[in-house]
Amino acid sequence: MNTAATDPKPQPRGVAPYDAIYPDGQQPHPRPSNPPPVPPRPRPAPITPIPSLAEVEPEEVEWLWPGRIPYGKFAVLDGNPNVGKSTLSIDIAARLTTGRPMPDQTDPTEPADVLILNVEDGQADTIRPRAEAAGANLNRIRVLHTCPYTSEDGIPRTRPFQIPRDLGHLRNQIGLHGARLVVIDVLNQFIGRASDTYKDQDMRNALGPLVDLAATTGVAVLALRHLTKGHRDNANAMFSGSGTVGIIGIARSGLVAAPHPTDPDAYALASTKNNLSRRPDTLQYRLVDAPDHKCARIQWGDTLELTADELLIPAGQTKGGQARDLIRERLANGPIPSTELRQAAHDREISDRTLKRAKQDLGTKSTRQGYGPDGQWHTQLPDT
User: Fold this and answer.
1) Does pLDDT of 311 surpass 90?
2) Fold: same for 63-312 and 316-380
3) Of 2, 76, 138, 140, whose CB neighbour count within 10 A is largest?
4) Looking at the domain covering 316-380, what would its CATH class be?
5) Could you state, in order of their start, the residue ranges of all structural domains in the chain?
6) Which pLDDT tens digit goes with each residue over 274-307?
7) Could you count the other beta carbons within 10 Å of the beta carbon of residue 55?
8) In this structure, are residues 320 and 261 in contact, taking their beta carbons and an 8 Å threshold?
């Protein structure tokens, strides 16, 4: 007898039939008579080829300040308090608003507006006097430190500007005024509380949208930072700015302002990083009084044969500092043959170029003693 049509469907061992567990009328979830259809699997996205470099149109980098501040990129300016970072940024902004050439340049710039993010300095008593002393077109500079928003109860309010939360407002202001430079003074003041400036991923998440904003609007972004407390223990000036190294990693250009190593009344602006051109020369500058405006302004000087590392490392630890110490030591009792001084420098692995620069810094004099083949050049300090 064939019982296949009448026998109940065999159940797995140890599992009771559904109707045995839930008698008629007691099932908490009756069996669906029409189960929902299974959605079709999504089709894979078509594979598109990646364009080759031959299909990419080359573009030249556009510079606000050649070799130092590029348009459409993120750059940083590092320095301790009292070296004039804010005054430097105002000087650069003032030149842009009036079309004057940048320091060490001869070509004028295209006049444009500037946006300054600043929460530390007062607009009336600090920022405007500095801008006037720098010769800025005040109609082209605007200061931003808050962002408007509408609260849950529908009331318009303002809140402190934060990156990246409020970059939409910054983008709107850039488009409204045609700004070409955004100065962030200082960067840490505008990073949201949810981001830790010493965590690399936090900073990349926060600054990535800012980098995109610069690229899509063509604006130059210059962010100011303080130096870390242990910057003198760091042999590389590139990594001396506050916050994670990811910040300088994102930047396409880095600058540092520091006191001049031998002139107590002067400072220097040096390049710590440049991904887009050759590294520019170090420039000397001074902070001079602007009595009509009761503030300081920048007075630019000559180029210097100093690197950013030499500016930040204590003088005795750099080759330049070692060369100056050597000259003072060997010439303390009077002139010595120049060949003897040169050999002493080589013994300490000090190059001829570094020795020459140190002699210039100290103002040494060279005199020839003797005549004919027995004559020798001697080096002496200026007061001997």
Assistant:
1) no
2) no
3) 76
4) mainly alpha
5) 63-312, 316-380
6) 999 999 999 999 999 999 999 999 999 999 988 8
7) 8
8) yes
Amino acid occupying residue 367: T
pLDDT digits (tens, 9 = 90+) for 3-43: 545 555 555 555 555 555 555 555 556 666 677 788 888 88
The tens digit of pLDDT for each residue in 36-76 reads: 788 888 888 889 999 999 999 999 999 999 999 999 999 99
